[in-house]
UniProtKB/TrEMBL annotation:
<comment type="similarity">
    <text>Belongs to the TRAP transporter small permease family.</text>
</comment>
<feature type="domain" description="Tripartite ATP-independent periplasmic transporters DctQ component">
    <location>
        <begin position="26"/>
        <end position="151"/>
    </location>
</feature>
<keyword id="KW-1003">Cell membrane</keyword>
<feature type="transmembrane region" description="Helical">
    <location>
        <begin position="87"/>
        <end position="109"/>
    </location>
</feature>
<keyword id="KW-0997">Cell inner membrane</keyword>
<dbReference type="InterPro" id="IPR055348">
    <property type="entry name" value="DctQ"/>
</dbReference>
<dbReference type="Pfam" id="PF04290">
    <property type="entry name" value="DctQ"/>
</dbReference>
<feature type="transmembrane region" description="Helical">
    <location>
        <begin position="129"/>
        <end position="150"/>
    </location>
</feature>
<feature type="transmembrane region" description="Helical">
    <location>
        <begin position="49"/>
        <end position="66"/>
    </location>
</feature>
<dbReference type="GO" id="GO:0005886">
    <property type="term" value="C:plasma membrane"/>
</dbReference>
<dbReference type="InterPro" id="IPR007387">
    <property type="entry name" value="TRAP_DctQ"/>
</dbReference>
<keyword id="KW-1133">Transmembrane helix</keyword>
<feature type="transmembrane region" description="Helical">
    <location>
        <begin position="20"/>
        <end position="43"/>
    </location>
</feature>
<keyword id="KW-0472">Membrane</keyword>
<keyword id="KW-0812">Transmembrane</keyword>
<protein>
    <submittedName>
        <fullName>TRAP-type C4-dicarboxylate transport system, small permease component</fullName>
    </submittedName>
</protein>
<keyword id="KW-0813">Transport</keyword>
């Protein structure tokens, strides 16, 4: 299980770097688009790039939210449970999340591969690259969920 935790730690650092980079790219391209639209000419590719960055940011950020245990949860009932039952419910939740992640991977690969031949209108890159965020995000969520299934007392959350 140490290997899984080590992998999750490395992936968390990579996710943070990716999120930071995507956010900076979004801000710069959106700012440039506004300036160019009013001062010079409209950049045809900036809106598309920002949109694709947002898609990737959503799935990578969602995976990081799983790792950090910061997703919204209703805990009104589980707060009344004894500690051992809280851990069992937490594990069950992460098993369900792992199943969802597997579905994201499976169908995300299908959608991504089907759209690799179609090019985006402005940047002329395969649309499938945008859809590839689904299986990548699903894989990250799966790894982080597996870690939380086997180590439910990891930092964050009420199951410490």
């Amino acid at each position: 299980m140490y290997a899984l935790s080590h992998l999750a730690n490395c992936l968390e650092k990579a996710c943070k770097t990716i999120i930071f980079t995507l956010f900076i790219v979004m801000v710069i391209t959106t700012f440039a688009q506004v300036i160019f639209r009013f001062v010079f000419f409209s950049l045809s590719w900036s809106e598309e790039l920002s949109r694709y960055c947002l898609v990737w940011l959503t799935f990578v950020g969602g995976a990081l939210g799983v790792r950090k245990k910061i997703h919204v949860a209703v805990e009104a009932v589980t707060l009344l449970f004894p500690r051992s039952l809280k851990i069992a419910v937490s594990r069950f939740n992460y098993v369900l999340l792992a199943v969802l992640a597997i579905l994201l991977i499976k169908y995300g690969i299908t959608v991504s591969v089907l759209n690799m031949q179609q090019l985006s209108p402005a940047m002329h890159i395969p649309i499938g690259l945008s859809y590839a965020a689904l299986p990548v995000g699903g894989l990250l969520i799966l790894i982080f969920s597996l870690e939380l299934i086997f180590h439910p007392e990891r930092k964050g959350g009420e199951t410490r």
